[in-house]
Write a structure and sequence with these properties.
Distance between the termini: 12 Å
Largest sheet: 3 strands, antiparallel
Strand order of the largest sheet: 2-1-3
Keywords: ATP-binding, Cytoplasm, Ligase, Nucleotide-binding, Purine biosynthesis
Subcellular location: Cytoplasm
Number of strands: 3
Family: Belongs to the PurS family.
CATH architecture: 2-Layer Sandwich
Helix content: 25-40%
Number of helices: 2
CATH topology: Mth169, Chain: A
Radius of gyration: 16 Å
CATH superfamily: Phosphoribosylformylglycinamidine synthase subunit PurS
Order of helices and strands: EHEHE
Number of domains: 1
EC number: 6.3.5.3
Catalytic activity: N(2)-formyl-N(1)-(5-phospho-beta-D-ribosyl)glycinamide + L-glutamine + ATP + H2O = 2-formamido-N(1)-(5-O-phospho-beta-D-ribosyl)acetamidine + L-glutamate + ADP + phosphate + H(+)
């Protein structure tokens, strides 16, 4: 069994109101020096067996079809260290 992680983020040109809300709250809470905040999503998929190139391609298709909206979001797929 292996864990594959899909990180989804809004494309840089897309406004991120949640990120801006967090950024605005930080100084009020006493946290200074944060110049920007972008909010995203993380999906962890537990898969059977070894993660092959074919399996990664299938997971990328899952991300493109279901987990991310490719019009406004970018995603990355990586295998997380099992240790």
């Amino acid at each position: 069994m292996a864990r594959v992680v899909v990180d989804v983020m809004l494309k840089p040109e897309i406004l991120d109101p949640q990120g801006k809300a967090v950024q605005g709250a930080l100084p009020r809470l006493g946290f200074d020096g944060v110049l920007d905040v972008r909010q995203g999503k993380r999906f962890e998929l537990e898969v059977e067996g070894e993660v092959t190139a074919e399996r990664l391609a299938e997971i990328e298709k899952i991300a493109e079809t279901l987990l991310a909206n490719p019009v406004i979001e970018d995603f990355t797929v990586h295998v997380e260290d099992a240790s």
